Amino acid sequence: MGRVIRGQRKGAGSVFKAHVKHRKGAAKLRHIDFAERHGYIKGIVKDIIHDPGRGAPLAKVAFRDPYRFKKRTELFIAAEGIHTGQFIYCGKKAQLNIGNVLPVGTMPEGTIICCVEEKPGDRGKLARASGNYATVISHNPETRKSRVKLPSGSKKVISSANRAVVGVVAGGGRIDKPILKAGRAYHKYKAKRNCWPRVRGVAMNDVMFKWSVYGDVLGLVLNNMHNFIFKTIF
């Protein structure tokens, strides 16, 4: 008699509950406005905080509202090297310094960037994980396109008007430290999603293995049989 395997149990589903109780908010660039299109706007880093479930730290950056008498606080993915009290400049005429936000077309070739927009105005979609970065490869002024190298190694052509943060995402080397204990993995994935613990296929009973039915010749069994037959014949 067959069993309901893990993939089938998850597919049946239940009431979904996202693990977002302690999240600090969505990390995005500013909404594009007149100040960024034609000049720059200055903000200040108020705090650098940890966001549960995310490897990279977040930076709280306060900007003056250009249209109303108040301040707006944005959550940016922190670049390596920024600190509290640092001024962050966003816009076409901002200087090329760590943490500043500029259009990709204004950056020289070879610039290291992160939190890159995939389409103009989407507020950052690429190279956002801790330690990740993209590299500006070339520009085409005629088509107003730029070519960037993504963290995966693939090359992508994007609009030169897409904005990006100068620098590398902070928190690099996070996965170099081993977890060592199941308790640490428990707390790690409790903040992320329900995908732990995961039983290895070779540790399961035959009827519970997801890629075959009971009695099937598959996986390590077939390799061992092939070696056994090969040795006995030759």
From TrEMBL:
One Gene Ontology cellular component annotation held by this UniProt entry: cytosolic large ribosomal subunit
Domain of life (superkingdom): Eukaryota
All copies of domain Large ribosomal subunit protein uL2 C-terminal, residue ranges: 96-214
Record-linked InterPro entries: NA-bd_OB-fold, Rib_uL2_dom2, Ribosomal_uL2, Ribosomal_uL2_C, Ribosomal_uL2_dom3, Ribosomal_uL2_RNA-bd_dom, Translation_prot_SH3-like_sf
Large ribosomal subunit protein uL2 RNA-binding domain mapped to chain residues: 11-90
Keyword Mitochondrion: no
GO MF terms, alphabetically ordered: rRNA binding; structural constituent of ribosome
Entry keyword RNA-binding: yes
Example GO BP: cytoplasmic translation
UniProt keyword list: Ribonucleoprotein, Ribosomal protein, RNA-binding, rRNA-binding
Entry similarity comment: Belongs to the universal ribosomal protein uL2 family.
UniProt xrefs under PANTHER family: LARGE RIBOSOMAL SUBUNIT PROTEIN UL2 (PTHR13691:SF16), RIBOSOMAL PROTEIN L2 (PTHR13691)
UniProt-recorded name of the protein: Large ribosomal subunit protein uL2
